[in-house]
Q: What sequence folds into this?
């Protein structure tokens, strides 16, 4: 009987000790965010938050210690731009436009400027840096004859197997880089706000890359009337103007607020000052 009591005591002690130590669940969080997405590229080179669209996402964090967190995120949003909104007459005359849904998955790290722990009044808030690598899906589209048309299959810049110019992919790599703030709201909840710009490796988020217009007669013969019409939509029909800027890739930005929820009980992650 005494042996059974000792075993029960030891098991309870081990369980209590383990529960008080940082573990996978106490160091893990999930969160949900709401924010906006916008685009920077050939059709919007200088206007932050131009044509921002409602976006949302989710997050999983694993807190390695109080100064660094592994971060895995997913977002869904939309980007768009219209030459008609430009202030320069040459760009207005170009008359291009696009919109594209964005679905992104990314993983990386957060580095906290100050130690952070849930429910710890001494470490209840911090600013942080974000560095991730991800993949996103895009689908540039535009309005034509009252309908939303997918641009990638058309080959508006002469992409065609017969032309020797391969079409761009709808799945692309990105590198989210940004800054944020977080604040503990108790032992299990935190509020976060961050903004991260996405470095991409494509110039076709807006379906515009080439510096010059493709020959309209050759393009019509190669890819059809619709491709030729959407390649050059200039108001004055100019075929010698500048279509895009091939020296710069496209970017997009997600900015949002988030609530995260700690999954387990027990102590937080180790403090690293």
A:
């Amino acid at each position: 009987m005494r042996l059974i009591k000792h075993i029960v005591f030891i098991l309870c002690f081990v369980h209590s000790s383990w529960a008080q130590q940082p573990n996978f669940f106490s160091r893990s969080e999930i969160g949900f965010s709401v924010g906006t997405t916008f685009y920077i590229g050939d059709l919007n080179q200088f206007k932050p938050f131009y044509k921002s669209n409602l976006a949302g996402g989710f997050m999983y964090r694993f807190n390695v210690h109080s100064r660094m967190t592994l971060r895995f995120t997913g977002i869904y949003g939309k980007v768009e731009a219209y030459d008609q909104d430009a202030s320069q007459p040459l760009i207005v005359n170009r008359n291009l436009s696009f919109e594209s849904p964005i679905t992104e998955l990314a993983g990386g790290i957060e580095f906290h400027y100050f130690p952070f722990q849930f429910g710890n009044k001494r470490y209840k808030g911090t600013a942080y840096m974000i560095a991730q690598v991800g993949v996103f899906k895009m689908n540039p589209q535009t309005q034509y004859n009252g309908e939303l048309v997918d641009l990638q299959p058309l080959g508006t810049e002469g992409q065609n197997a017969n032309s020797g110019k391969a079409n761009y992919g709808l799945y692309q790599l990105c590198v989210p880089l940004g800054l944020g703030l977080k604040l503990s709201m108790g032992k299990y909840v935190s509020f976060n706000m961050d903004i991260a710009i996405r470095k991409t490796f494509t110039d076709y988020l807006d379906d515009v890359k080439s510096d010059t217009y493709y020959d309209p007669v050759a393009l019509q013969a190669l890819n059809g009337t619709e491709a030729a019409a959407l390649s050059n939509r200039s108001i004055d029909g100019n075929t010698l103007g500048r279509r895009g800027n091939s020296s710069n890739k496209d970017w997009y930005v997600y900015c949002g607020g988030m609530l995260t929820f700690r999954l387990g009980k027990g102590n937080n992650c180790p403090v690293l000052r």
Notes: The longest strand covers residues 97-112. The domain at 28-262 is CATH 2.40.160.20 (Porin). The first helix runs from residue 2 to 20.
